[in-house]
Amino acid sequence: MxxxxxxxxxxxxxxxxxxxxxEDKEQxxxxxxxxxxxxxxxxxxxxxxxxxxxxxxxxxxxxxxxSGCELPLTFSIGPDRTAKPIKxxxxxxxxxxxxxxxxRGGATVxxxxxxxxxxxxxxxxxxxxxxxxxxRPALEAFVAGDEKASDPRYRTVRAGGADAVEASWIxxxxxLEEEHRQWALAVRAGDRAVLLTVSEGLVAEVGxxxxxYRLAGRTVAVxx
Length: 224
Known about the structure:
Elements: H1 3-20, E1 60-62, E2 73-77, E3 82-85, H2 91-102, E4 103-104, E5 107-114, E6 122-128, H3 135-144, E7 149-159, E8 162-173, E9 178-189, E10 192-199, H4 206-218, E11 221-222
Antiparallel strand pairs: 1-2, 2-11, 3-5, 4-5, 5-6, 6-10, 7-8, 8-9, 9-10
């Protein structure tokens, strides 16, 4: 298959699948971000963390049985958002590209919170494939799994009542010739690490995606 044709197909399938179903700078956790602790970084407004952005109002809780996404932790999502498990496409196309779209850096995407009705894009939940006692290496591996990642930043934060690590980086879409900033929060839940991720994009800006992400991080409750 021609490389450009494969890239176009991959981009189209990514939208179909996910819509349908370095510098190590320790920086902060302010109002609207995961709650601070003695080990968390201080709050800093503006890029890359944008701690001045407040969390969305709470709607429902996901992660438990019957919530649409069963996970080893729970968190709140805002109004006009729905959670659903990620399903790998079937058939030859699924075998060819499914793993590429649902796995990254030793983690597999398990759940997606669709915030398009609120103009908030998607929040995705990933679970590490192997046991881990430290979320930091899991988060670093996830970021490294994005071959187009640049300018990665990390900081320690609190996610609900748990210690967590947060990352922000820039990902380049060569097909569209655009750069988008992404964020991820990693917390240990049982013997795995759970990652909550969001990204600004064509229709969702920083102020659209971060309120729901902040709410999720602030309300994390480990159950596994």
